[in-house]
Write a structure and sequence with these properties.
The protein is an alpha/beta fold. It is built from twelve helices and twelve strands. Keywords: Methyltransferase, Transferase.
Length: 272
């Protein structure tokens, strides 16, 4: 059982993992370098533990100690208890859900290993908004995508905002990061995947025409909000696909587009 420690000094060095959580650039550098990520809220903390991530510590307000008692009892990690106003001085914001946990990262798997047993994967290019990353992972989990591949400059799926928006789905969908972009798409294609580039370009085939749910192995590639896929990524794809639009709308938010396209890719797929 983890030791429960009441802390009344926001500068206590034991709270280092939780300092300045709103400083995005600082946390982007610190968290991977220090091998940690932050899980926020009861459900997300539980899902991170269930997925096998080791807990470093927890930061709770008093009323959450009883709620998280079973998690505390199963862990040897320290549990720091603070008044909400003091915790806000540490983190930089009001922790509405009252519970934070610092979790240990695991090494990312090799892309080829992630793809070996997959049939439906999503490939993301330069999606650097954490909210969009979280939304895409949540849709990928809900709609049966097998894995996510990230270009080198994509945002971190384990950043607090991504984890929160995904409701912990980042823990249930395997993912890996491609090192050389877009050259490493050849690894995907060599494993038998047809790479479909999602674009609003009118030259693209509609998803209905392409019928990706009938293909053996599909890698659906999406680009960043606004700019979409780069010319290099489009050139590397096997086929361009699009979602038909009405009423003069030219495109959807990347999170919404991902959900629509995931359904088209997975609809009618046999359950394994």
């Amino acid at each position: 059982m983890g030791e429960i420690i009441t802390v009344d000094d926001p500068a206590d060095p034991r709270l280092h993992d939780y300092t300045d959580l709103t400083d995005v650039e600082l946390r982007r550098r610190r968290e991977p370098a220090e091998g940690l990520f932050i899980a926020e809220g009861e459900k997300v903390i539980r899902r991170a533990g269930d997925a096998g991530y080791g807990m470093r510590s927890m930061l709770l307000s008093q009323k959450w100690v009883d709620v998280m008692r079973d998690v505390i009892d199963r862990s040897d990690s320290p549990v720091y208890v603070m008044e909400p106003a003091l915790a806000e001085q540490v983190t930089g914001y009001h922790v509405h859900r009252g519970a934070l946990a610092s979790m240990g990262r695991r090494p990312l798997p090799d892309p080829a290993g992630v793809l070996r047993t997959a049939r439906r994967v999503v490939v993301l290019e330069s999606v650097n908004d954490h909210t969009n990353i979280g939304a895409i992972f949540r849709s990928a989990a809900a709609l049966g995508m097998d894995a996510v591949l990230l270009s080198p400059d994509c945002a971190d799926p384990l950043y607090r905002r991504s984890v929160k928006v995904s409701m912990g789905a980042v823990f249930s969908v395997p993912y890996a990061r491609l090192e050389t972009w877009p050259k490493d798409l050849t690894t995907v294609q060599d494993l038998g995947f047809t790479v479909l580039a999602l674009t609003p370009d009118e030259r693209a085939h509609t998803l209905d025409e392409t019928a990706p749910h009938r293909m053996d192995r599909v890698a659906l590639m999406l680009g960043a909000e606004g700019t979409g896929l780069s010319p290099r990524a489009l050139s590397a794809a096997d086929t361009w696909v699009r979602i038909p639009m009405s009423h003069g709308v030219d495109s959807l938010n990347v999170g919404a587009a991902a959900a629509v396209a995931f359904y088209a890719v997975t609809a009618g797929r046999p359950q394994e």
